[in-house]
Design a protein that fits this description.
Helix content of chain A: over 70%
Structural class of chain A: mainly alpha
Oligomer: heterodimer
Shape of chain B: globular
Strand content of chain A: under 5%
Distance between the termini of chain A: 43 Å
Strand content of chain B: under 5%
Radius of gyration of chain A: 19 Å
Structural class of chain B: mainly alpha
Strand order of the largest sheet of chain A: 1-2
Chain lengths: 293, 331
């Protein structure tokens, strides 16, 4: 095997960072819901696909200009997230986490069925946010879309942190996360907070989907592997920690890309998940997780 | 005790054994009654899945753990059997046994670090293991045949008679399934079963009662992996063709769905769950497009209305109703 040149390495690093940013966005969606409800929300996976689908429809069905279409897609994904919580999860009378997790898996099957029905099973192409002129940077070429991904991901992460640290809503969310009963006693509506956390998760997933589908392709199940890697990133960083989710996402993306370049691209999923298992075996609560579950 | 009481007592104290016998009797005459190879094919698939689902139910339902990767062990069993018979020409029975041992060992080695994890971390680890296995099955095409799969797997044979039609396979698969069902029913009431139920309730409390929590979990995990492996081997020898698409994470989710629909910790529920999920596509045949949605809706409805599963849930509902009626009669 040839040693990759510096330019090649840089190219792979950018590819890894791009995927990492997407994983981080999805991971944050997983974390927000986990923090308010204590469950893994597997519908996150489909909210990623939906982000791409909504962008596609906004552009080609409604003929909206790109910025409006992107905003519309993210909003629609957030609303879908809220609907999932309100219709699918809140009526459940169980507080058994196992049951709730399987419930989200069932809801995820329904969402994929609806997507298959509404958009068909074919692969579709979504245009990037701006023109496709590649930019040269230190000898490596990068698409403008990748810069958009970095920019918007960073923006979304900062917005999320600002909401959590600086607003009353964030305070309420943290209150519900730390003790739902105590939060209810001081008059915080837990149901509403959970619905908002699903909306945030939907928005994050939708944004990730809308940003990444121009580089990959769009189909009703595109979010499954992406979403599971987002879940892996969240676990890698320590489930529930925002810093951990971002670090886990970037780490997973970069390691995966470098492993694909240096070892084998066919086995990059094996390497990614193998590494994840290894980390979990050494640190059972993830890199940034605390010992308590 | 009057003779009538004695009969009633006999039936109530042997109800589990009698139910198993009744089921066995029904299955004995089923092929003569049905005879249609297509219908037999479906019920055979139920038997094969039931073996894996009971194993998984012991792990999820009794031990209260989570596995979203059991299709990997199904796949390892199928590919182990297939590779040993197709590439090395080993006798299918021997291949099946050797595979089961190898899968058991693999599961043991995987379980030692994995079962230290809990909750979401455990879900991720089992999911990750499934994705790793699936990718290897897909990509190592020189050995596994890649996406196009492996064909020409020999049928099992008994005393010179090849088990190559639906009726013969019916007796083999359901014979094995009844055996596993009995094993599951007994195990649930054994000391290991009770230990696992304690672990599921509260690990710390279980440990303080002298239960070796980690060891009990590993044991049941290895058992469930071996059962999945046997089911996978039967699957391979029945259809003589396998490809990786039968062993994805979606199949793992489907296995879990069978457990959950039937009821966590209910062995009879597993029989019901496996039957329902496998029969469902047959009923939904004519509206193919809505299949996934209806499939999901059933899971969601059951989980919202009867979170303990259809069988246990309906049983509880019935018991409540009878109690209420008895109360009303007394007042």
């Amino acid at each position: 095997m040839n040693m990759p040149t510096l330019t090649d390495s840089l190219q792979f690093l950018f590819a890894g960072l791009t995927n990492g940013a997407i994983y981080a966005l999805i991971a944050l969606g997983f974390c927000v819901v986990h923090n308010t409800m204590g469950i893994v929300n597997f519908t996150q996976v489909d909210l990623v696909s939906l982000g791409g689908m909504f962008l596609y429809s906004a552009l080609f069905l409604f003929g909206l200009p790109m910025p409006l279409a992107l905003a519309g897609a993210v909003t629609a994904a957030a609303v879908t997230g809220m609907a999932v919580e309100r219709v699918g999860i809140r009526p459940s009378r169980s507080d058994n986490h196992l049951v709730l997790i399987f419930l989200t898996i069932g809801l995820s099957v329904i969402l994929r069925g609806i997507m298959k029905l509404a958009w068909g099973k074919n692969r579709m192409a979504v245009p990037p946010l701006t023109a496709d002129e590649p930019i040269r940077l230190f000898g490596a070429t990068i698409l403008p879309q990748i810069l958009w991904i970095f920019l918007l991901t960073a923006g979304a992460v900062l917005l999320l942190i600002w909401i959590f640290r600086r607003t009353t809503l964030g305070l309420c969310m943290r209150a519900v996360a730390s003790n739902a009963d105590a939060a209810a006693v001081v008059g915080i509506d837990g149901g509403r907070i959970r619905m908002i956390s699903f909306a945030i998760a939907g928005g994050m997933g939708g944004l990730a989907g809308a940003l990444v589908t121009p580089i990959t392709t769009l189909s009703y199940d595109v979010g499954v592997l992406l979403g599971l890697k987002g879940f892996a990133a969240a676990i890698l960083g320590g489930f529930g920690s925002f810093v951990g989710a971002v670090a886990g996402g970037v780490l997973l993306g970069v390691l995966e890309s470098l492993a694909a370049a240096g070892l084998s691209s066919a086995y990059k999923d094996v390497i990614a998940f193998g590494l994840l298992l290894l980390v979990l075996f050494i640190r059972p609560a993830g890199l940034f997780g605390s010992a308590k579950r | 005790m009057t003779p009538r009481d004695r009969i009633r007592y006999f039936f109530s104290s042997h109800r589990t054994g009698l139910s198993v016998c009744l089921l066995a009797l029904f299955l004995l005459v089923y092929p003569a009654w049905v005879g249609n190879p297509y219908l037999l094919g479906i019920s055979n698939l139920i038997a094969v899945y039931l073996i894996a689902v009971i194993g998984l139910n012991l792990f999820i339902g009794y031990a209260g753990q989570i596995s979203l990767g059991h299709a990997a062990y199904l796949g390892l069993g199928a590919y182990g059997s297939a590779l040993l018979t197709v590439h090395l020409g080993i006798n299918p029975w021997l291949a099946m046994a050797a595979t089961a041992v190898a899968v058991g060992l693999t599961a043991f080695l995987v379980a030692i670090p994995t079962l230290r994890l809990s909750g979401h971390y455990l879900a991720m680890a089992t999911l990750g293991f499934n994705i790793v296995c699936y990718t290897v099955m897909m990509q190592w095409d020189r050995v596994t045949g890649g996406p196009s799969g492996l064909a020409g797997i020999p049928h099992l044979s008994l005393a010179g008679v090849a088990i190559d039609d639906e009726t013969r396979f019916h007796y083999l698969a359901w014979g094995a399934a009844i055996l596993v069902l009995t094993l599951g029913l007994n195990l649930a009431r054994s000391s290991l079963g009770l230990a696992l139920a304690a672990v599921a309730q509260n690990e710390t409390a279980a440990a303080s009662l002298g239960i070796q929590v980690h060891r009990a979990k590993i044991r049941i995990f290895v058992l469930s992996a071996v059962l999945a492996s046997v089911a996978g081997s039967l699957f391979a020898h029945c259809y003589t063709f396998i490809n990786p698409d039968s062993f994805t994470i979606f199949n793992s989710v489907e296995l879990v769905t069978m457990v959950v629909i039937g009821g966590l910790g209910s062995i009879w529920g597993s029989l019901f769950g496996a039957s329902l999920i496998i029969l469902l596509p047959e009923f939904l045949h004519f509206f193919e497009t809505f299949r996934d949605i209806i499939h999901g809706l059933i899971v969601v409805t059951v989980l919202i209305l009867l979170p303990q599963g259809l069988v246990s849930g309906l049983k509880d509902l019935l018991r409540m109703r009878l109690l209420r009626k008895a109360n009303n009669a007394r007042n």
